[in-house]
Amino acid sequence: MKTSKIIFIALLSTIALIILAALIDLRLSGKRYVDGKKDYKISKLKIPSIRVLCINENSSIELVQSDSAYFELTVMKDSIVPELKYAISGDTLKIMDQMTKIGSGAWVSIHINDQLNQIILKNSHTNLINFGISNLSFDLDQSSVNVNQVIVKKTAFQRLNILAKNNSRFEADDIKIDSLQVELQHSEVYLWSTVNNLNGSIADSSRLRVRQPRAITLKRDLSSNVEINE
Description:
Blueprint: H1 3-29, E1 40-46, E2 52-56, E3 61-65, E4 70-76, E5 84-89, E6 92-100, E7 107-112, E8 118-122, E9 125-129, E10 135-141, E11 144-148, E12 157-165, E13 169-172, E14 176-185, E15 188-191, E16 194-203, E17 207-211, E18 215-220, E19 225-229
Parallel strand pairs: 2-6, 2-8, 3-7, 3-9, 8-10, 9-11, 10-12, 11-13, 12-14, 13-15, 14-16, 15-17, 16-18, 17-19
Antiparallel strand pairs: 1-4, 4-7, 5-6
């Protein structure tokens, strides 16, 4: 093999390793830093514990389970920390549109403790990082959710309820669910997960993919599809 070709292959391998290392750091940290952490600053804003989270017209928020509840903002060091648009009423936190009033390039994550039991999304998308809440319900309207368990837990959810309509999508990687209740209307749920009990109904060209449950009580219309994997 020619020396130039060996050098070229070595260079490609080095680039690939750098990209892989960056992706691993992103997945483990749950943060979207670019180029170098020294170029960014982090601000935290404490909030009360909440039971209901409503997100409307937003596609840039990440949810992280923590011991306490707070917003975390990441911005460039030379940027103004944006003002957040949100409202708290009782035990409910409401997020409106893109949440920031000024500036761009601001990354927002919401750290939430295990008091949370319902997430309502309208025309929105969110990522959930390391959630292991016992009972959690999702109400999705033209929205999508990705659940990523970076830290392996014995049980991610004891009871998970998913109500999804209007072309919504829910996807989770390898987590454990004791009881899963789904009500789908023209929506999709893809679970690469272990489910003990599956209940509910799917209709209006919905799609459900799940690993083989121990018990199934599920209704579906002729337009919908259920895929059970081993």
